[in-house]
Specification:
A: mainly alpha; 3 helices; 75% helix; B: globular
């Protein structure tokens, strides 16, 4: 039997690694990869809670599936935005995309 | 130490090491391949948690679709980066500090909460229940429809955003 706290610790570590990637990487695609890591950490948490706390209901799995849907939409729209920015400004470095910076 | 715990520790180490490689790798294609390893580890965790359907969805959707999409985006935007120079911005140490601080805070919070463990096995027919609750108006029919509309909007929106404007 694997303790629930192991899953939660692993998910917390994965989330923090993803957060570092989002905050520190320059390339916009790498930032999106960090976001995917964070979403996966959340999904581990949701499924672990479903398995250990409420296995007889489906709500935990439902949450995880909605996260899957949102992650797919987010990746598609985000990468479309990056390709559009690359086409117009010839850069994917997040610091150089400062058109709206005041 | 049971075999399941050993599998968990091995998978967890693989996930964390490949996740670190995703955020520190210089070559973005390598980072994307490490991301695939990490996502596959998460699928193994779903199997350990007796959520086989989600593990299948994880492999099909994350590894089959999102990871491939990311590799395509890297290859389409590769010319400017050329993997030269630092891949992190000047505030990388502050970002690392924030990440470590958040991890410590999360661990402290975890140690403070007592979870009401159910200690009942996952029912054999949970997948049938899941499928029925998707179409049951009293349960999750509305979120299901909203999710499908969201996917359609994302599909059309990304075509419009990334599509070539006729000039």
């Amino acid at each position: 039997m694997i303790p629930l706290s192991w899953y939660l610790t692993l998910a917390a570590a994965l989330f923090c690694i993803g957060l570092y990637g989002v905050l520190a990487r320059k390339n916009a695609v790498a930032i999106l990869m960090g976001i995917e890591l964070m979403l996966n950490a959340v999904n581990i948490n949701l499924v672990a809670f479903w398995h250990y706390l409420t296995p007889t209901t489906v709500s935990g799995q439902m949450f995880a599936i909605i996260v899957f849907v949102v992650a797919a939409s987010e990746a598609a729209v985000g990468l479309a935005l990056i390709i559009s920015i690359y086409r117009r400004r010839n850069t994917v470095v997040a610091e150089e995309i400062d058109l709206m910076k005041w | 130490m049971t075999p399941l715990q050993l599998i968990f520790l091995f998978t967890g180490a693989a996930i964390l090491i490949s996740a670190v490689m995703v955020v520190v790798a210089h070559n973005l294609v390598h980072a994307a391949l490490w991301l695939v390893v990490s996502l596959f580890g998460v699928a193994v965790l779903f199997v350990l948690l007796e959520a086989g359907f989600l593990a299948a969805v994880q492999v099909v959707l994350y590894i089959g679709a999102i990871a491939i999409l990311i590799i395509f985006a890297i290859m389409l935007t590769r010319r400017v980066m050329q993997d030269s120079g630092p891949q992190t911005n000047q505030q990388w140490w502050l970002s690392a500090l924030i990440a470590v601080a958040l991890f410590v805070a999360l661990l402290w919070t975890l140690s403070q909460v007592a979870y009401p463990l159910a200690n009942v096995p996952v029912p054999e027919s949970y997948l049938i229940t899941l499928g029925r609750s998707f179409v049951d108006p009293n349960q999750y029919a509305l979120p299901f429809e909203v999710a499908s509309v969201l996917l359609l909007v994302a599909l059309i929106g990304s075509i419009v955003i990334a599509g070539e404007k006729g000039k």
